């Protein structure tokens, strides 16, 4: 698997001022994979109620349809690194864009709930590819000084994709008379919600075609003339490209390709640092953040808010998600990773506990719940506060930490294990929420609040600050 944080291949330690803009451009272009990641994973939010009505499925099957993409994500993430090492980062980006587009068309025109789930698995594979390739490419062109902020582009693109998907869902629903099953040009609104992902997929393919290949891959593939050209574009014409190439060749020659057995050791099977990475990944999901992104529209509908307004509320939450991510990008290299994580954990615990209290006042059952006006307002504020605290902390910090915290000799293998744990935890939360919410919505949120509170203890005891520490010095 590609090491997403290996010392950048020919990356610029102190880029010429005129070249930093170019680095930002190619970073942003690569991060469009993150945009598709967010868009495709969240767009199902607005389509859930339409899918349920169209195919007559209950909460259990709904959970499987929504979570099916995560199974594909695990596969895509597992193979992306190997393919990127063999065929190059750019070709794998293009392949991911094509998978996104094919999945969008198939999801738009399903014959049944089950083939819709299969198309979602294919889209999930593209998500998994994007989750590995974009940060890999970014790390290989990012100067150390700006590494945290440029690495945050991936998360910023993800939350932007989530927001745009919610806005598009709301616009389509309004155009169809406020009903996701309303007709638009011969198809139902929810079908357009899923199919319109073709557009950003095409943009991603085009941008992947114009940005340069990673210098590290070019040197590894012995395409030295191409590598010199890219290094000159990134660092400026005055750079000693031969010296840069020699440096990267020495790094590649000394690379140790980590295997799973390199992670073994300690009292509990794996090295302690690997368990910390797994813990960060799992806690990021166990607080229930993806419940907001995947199910918020039917959540608000279940407590008496109409379909159109529920989609608008989901969009507002996505905008707050963007705001929180911007805050994290600004602070992650200044305040540090650990303080942000602690602040976020405390804020999430309070917000989730408050939401749990508000939902305890719901009356009715199943999909026919109602909340008193006060508790309904409190639930909305608490849910958005939860999103803000998550976005300004764990949303960015975990991805940055996973890229930095492991020693060079085990980084790729350890990151693979931690990322797999994250996908599994994500799947568990996503597939279980519909049934859990029907059982007891208030208790469900209190469970998420308990995990947020536990994450405070975990960060305080086990997480070490990596701000300002060189990757080569992690140990």
TrEMBL record:
Check the record and name the InterPro entries matching this protein.
MFS_dom, MFS_sugar_transport-like, MFS_trans_sf, Myo-inositol_Transporter, Sugar/inositol_transpt, Sugar_transporter_CS, XylE-like
Q: Provide this UniProt record's keywords sorted from A to Z.
A: Cell membrane, Membrane, Sugar transport, Transmembrane, Transmembrane helix, Transport
Instruction: List residues of the Major facilitator superfamily (MFS) profile domain.
Output: 26-467
Entry keyword S-adenosyl-L-methionine: no
User: Which Gene3D superfamilies does this one have?
Assistant: MFS general substrate transporter like domains
Regions crossing the membrane: 20-39, 59-80, 92-111, 117-138, 150-172, 192-211, 268-295, 311-332, 339-359, 379-400, 412-433, 445-463
Which is a Pfam family this sequence falls into?
A: Sugar_tr
Record's superkingdom? Bacteria
What PROSITE patterns does the record point to?
MFS, SUGAR_TRANSPORT_1, SUGAR_TRANSPORT_2
How would you describe this protein's topology in the membrane?
Multi-pass membrane protein
Q: Where in the cell is it found?
A: Cell membrane
Coiled-coil intervals in this record? none
Q: Which family does it belong to?
A: Belongs to the major facilitator superfamily. Sugar transporter (TC 2.A.1.1) family.
List the protein's name.
MFS transporter
The organism encoding this protein is Kitasatospora xanthocidica
Its lineage reads:
Bacteria, Bacillati, Actinomycetota, Actinomycetes, Kitasatosporales
